[in-house]
Amino acid sequence: GGIEELKNWILDKSEIRFARYGRPRLIHGTLMRTFDILIYGIPNVGKSSLINAIRGRHVSATGFRAGITRGVQIINLAEGVRLIDMPGVVDWSIGEEHLALHAALDVEKLKDPLSVAERLVEQCIAKKDDGLANHFGVRMAGDAETLLVSIARRRGKLLKGGEPDVDEAAKIVLREWQKGKYVLSKVSGLSAAKALPKSKPSG
Length: 203
Known about the structure:
Layout: H1 2-21, E1 25-27, E2 30-32, E3 35-39, H2 47-55, E4 73-78, E5 81-85, H3 96-101, H4 113-126, H5 131-136, H6 144-154, H7 166-178
Parallel strand pairs: 3-5
Antiparallel strand pairs: 1-2, 4-5
Helix pairs in contact: 1-2, 4-6, 4-7, 6-7
């Protein structure tokens, strides 16, 4: 498939490089002239999973949470051919709402998780997508606040006096969206890795 083709392409390119510049060799105890492939991008889009697929076994840590890869990891693909797994790079100009809805920014790091959750819920309402409401076992509402209130009550997230904790409900909505616990089939423009039924994504 595509992964095997990619692996073969990398190995073919490495042979071309070695034929031109020589094969890797130790110089003063350091391996030089290696053919390195740098894998980088925003957090939690599957960089480490891609490396594991190319390598053919689990060699790079993966998980649902952004930031699993903390430092540079070097994985040997073949003699002198290395895959370099980099921590996620965040372009803050994109905006934290976009990053969170695409699972590239942890909910706990959001300045205003409520507004981001409201954006997600509003899109569900506008598109008549009941995936979120069905997941939380509540009825679809006509506005985001009402739906978040229902979710807070359903999950038992109440403040003193029995008032629903809408802020906590918002965080739950976002966390479970990022973890792929519900799918929104009618909402376009969102491509969080978690929104698709698949194996764990990576850092």
